[in-house]
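User: Show me a protein chain along with its predicted structure.
Assistant: Here is one chain, sequence first, then structure tokens.
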Amino acid sequence: MGERLENAQSPYLQRNRESPVEWYEWGEEPFRRAKEEEKLIFLSIGYSSCHWCHVMEREVFENREVADLLNREFISIKVDREERPDIDRYYQEVYRLLNQQSGGWPLSIFMTPDRKPFFAATYIPLEPRDGRVGFKELIENMVRLFKRAPREIYDQADQIVQFMKPATKVEEMVPLDRNIGEHFLEAARRFFDPINGGFGSKPKFPHTSIINTLLTIYRLEGREEALQMATKTLREMARGGLRDIVDGGFCRYTTDEEWSIPHFEKMTYDNALLMESYLRAYHTTRDPFFRGIALEIAEFMMEYMEEKGLFFSASDADSQGVEGGYFTYDYREVVEKLKRDGFGEEEIEAVLERLNIKREGAIGGRSLPRTEEPLSSTDEEPVLKSLKEIRKNRPYPFIDKKIITSWNAMMIRSLYIAARMDNRYFEVAEESMEALLKLMLVDDHLYHSTIIGERPKIKGFLEDYAYLAIALLEGYKTTLKEEYLAKAQLLVEDSLVEFFDGGRWQFSKGEFCTEADYNDSSYPSSAAVMVDALLTLGALRESRYFDFAFDTLRAYSGQIEKFMPWCGRFVEETLRYLHQDRVIASTPENLAPCTLQIDLVRYPFTLLKGEEHGSYLLCDRESCRKESESCQEILRSLDG
């Protein structure tokens, strides 16, 4: 078993090598075999840190009877959705079409021998449960129907493929005006949880795009409500179970509205984006609480998720088959450990109360340490040291060591922002940028994912170009290295050729042509992020990039207006386009002190431009409005 996955780069696929199901990696061979042998195709899409993917693997695919039936009657293909987001996006659309709701993972797709889908589901239990058909019964029925009346399956598949053709209708465009900030605030208010912070109901996700846009609206318009919603959410997330106070870092989401019970996987993209949001909150409020959380995330990522300057994609929710087993604590083991470490009975009682560690436990009889208020520096170190030592005796959750360009770029960007505040992160950011470019930008081609030490195979998608471009531009803002600016421009030029079409963007082309999201799902829309890069290049390089940015904002304007607040990144870029960047221009030497303070000025859209002009110039899109011999004077003018 597993020979067909022998050469797979994906750690997720490698984990499935020992499965009794004879999985194929996506490629021509399984489709050729399906056609030659007239077998149905079963496609399973998942990823390493997906809890329900593991459940289905254990319950269903490790069942000998099911595996034998799949091996005899189907061609089975396993896809890592993080490695091939284009395949996942296409088949998630198939699921939406067939089920009239959004999908998820694991994604289970059944296809005819000629690759046309006819049935889609997510997790399927082994036996019938809660009104769901069981997997064994389902595939037995499919095999019988395919042998008795194959035309029925082929006809259904043909209809689905016909419906999957790209839609010609797009949302009607709406005017871009500065009232978009007010509309966004109204929409955010409708979904805001005033008690627990956050947006929407359970399960509760961080939604960093909403937070960032609210902070921008406050800085532009002084709306206290926007600041309150953003900071309330950030505080409550940090005090709840979403944040791991022992090792650091944030989990993916919580299953409750109070942020107390997380789904325990930790994703690089979540931590990178949350680090940026906490840094932005610090820049806006000067509250050291937010700064501390941001740097705690950085330290977690560097300790647990980094190798040779590159960041792994995710760590698992499960440990030895138990969800959250590594992270949670038994009441008695904590008491005994604290006693051994010299804590008195009253101290132990106070610590347990403070960290919400209960006898009964809220997660399978166990507790997850969390605090309603941050621990004081005197309390923090010995208590957390004891809890960390308990964890050292447990196997750490599986880490998917896949390197993904876009996710690494998110982390590098946050490190550059942190480096402007704390020089400790400067070398880390520089090392990571160099490592990522060396690994993923090969012969002027950008790639999406690989493993350290292996040559990448999968060409980059729009998200890789967009996020790497803005990371390079953040690097330029921090270092004023012209090479970063030049590389960002090359990436954007390649993107315009490859993915841009009259204002709208494709996420992928080639085997699967998929559209870029207009909304921010797991992370901000790659089309909106590309507008960020276009606006920066328009201000620092060539004004023609403003035209591409405007065409994009106009093309998506109807969807942005209709689906607020879930298009936060697009709203922020619309505000930026309308209000315009302010560019401080001078020699790189003169700009060094500005670099250290630029994030703290009130005006949120401020750039630096190195040139041979001896004094400081402050310019916008049309003209240079101020000249000064003092960086401080320029910065003060942006702080009004």
